[in-house]
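Class, study these two lines:
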Amino acid sequence: MTIVVGNLATPEGQAALDAAVAEAEQRKAPLVVVAGPGEPGWHGADLTERLRASGVEVRMDPGTGDLAEDLVRIALETGAELMVIGLRRRSPVGKLILGSGAQRILIEAPCPVLAVKV
């Protein structure tokens, strides 16, 4: 069983990655990190060092450019036990509408989803 997380260079993306690493450590599960659209930095030295230091078994996946689709696909392929996503705080009106990517993930996920709020 694996844990799947997207890597985005946003506060929400970083919070999701932190939570995914913590879950992988606690569960002693491998972690699959999927690059978000336009995120060439998923293979950057800082991220690689941080993940190595955690001691978690990590696989990096460049994704296809549609992060929601990639996360669901990889969760299915790997038999993931958990997906981790980051959400940002929203205004009262914004709370009526969840981001379309997050909504797709929650609806299509083949496993539990941990939503980390920043």
User: Anything to note?
Assistant: The radius of gyration is 13 Å. The CA atoms of residues 5 and 25 lie 14 Å apart. DSSP finds four helices and five strands in the chain.
